[in-house]
Amino acid sequence: MQRVRIGAGACAATALGLAVWQMAGPATSQATGPVVVAAQPLRPAAGTPVQGWAKAPPVAETQAAAPVAAEPAPPVMAAAPDPCAATLEVFAEEGAMLGLTLQSPCHPNMRVEISHGGLTVAMQTLATGSLFATLPALDPAGQVSARFADDTLAQGAAPVPELATMRRFAVEWQQGERLELNGFESGADYGDPGHSSVANGGVLLVGDPMARPVRMAEIYDFPDPSKARVTIEAEVTANSCGRSLRGNTVYAAGGAVRTADLVLSMPDCDGAGGFVVLNNPLPDMTLAAAE
Asked: Is residue 111 in some structural domain?
């Protein structure tokens, strides 16, 4: 079978010393071997001036730089949770009370100070580092903090709007400075109906006596001040005589809170067995409610 191949011929003209290319027209060939088509620039004939002839500069070979693959960004590692983190949940409960749930796995059987509304008491965690307690609310915002001796801190809050219609008075004392709170309603005297204390009810003792050093408080809910009176007293003992006992008081009324330092001067030790009584330790009711 015949194959038609396409070739190209070259011709040259030297009259002006310029190389001219001319493509040949198609032609058929019966040759069985391949036809090689070659094209090359023509040089001027011998003796012809070389004006206009210049040697082409060598073409520099370039090699494209291989693209550099970007290094993958290191994975972002999430911070591991702190196994010793302390958490405090606070719940508003009936009667303007605050329920506390403290979890601190790295503080088993340890003393912790619970602060709220200007009052601070000491409690102790269980072997699991947890603590479950109930605290009378003093501040309507219901903010509570728990702090350990190593300054580990946990905080929580639960609003207590009910407190705006209540009156509460608290006295706080520390180890060796035992202070007792008494409430008397409707003209009652010691031991009468209407006498409130930790011993006979009506006054709530807050804190854990096993958490040393001791830091506790007594809290009393009372009606209109015209119908009740409050006293703070301390027994004269070998540990309390001849010095001043120090504590703090917190008064909550109408949603306002007032705190005050308390100093109770004790008699000489020959008065052991008696009591020192501070009558009417409440601050001005009207001023406190307005603040």
From this structure: yes
Is 221 a domain residue? yes
Backbone angles phi, psi at 170, to 5 degrees: -135, 145
CATH of the domain at 149: 2.60.40
Residues with Cβ < 8 Å from 147, sequence gap 6 or more? 112, 113, 115, 153
**Residues 218 and 232 placed together within one structural domain of the fold:** yes
Which residue range forms the structural domain that includes residue 277? 166-290
| Contacting residues for 88 by C-beta, under 8 A, at least 6 apart | 100, 101, 102, 103, 144, 145, 146, 154, 155, 156
Look at the chain and report how many structural domains it folds into: 2
pTM, two decimal places:
0.70
Residue with tokens 């993958």, as numbered in its chain? 72
Q: Are 115 and 147 in contact (CB under 8 A)?
A: yes
Residue corresponding to tokens 């210049």: 54
Buried-state track 170-182, b at ≥16 Cβ within 10 A, e below 16: bbbbbeebbbbbb
Q: Measure the CA angle with vertex 281, ends 184 and 255; round to 5°.
A: 90
Please write the tens of the pLDDT for every residue from 94-143.
999 999 999 999 999 999 999 999 999 999 999 999 999 999 999 999 99
Residue where one domain finishes, among candidates 139, 162, 185: 162
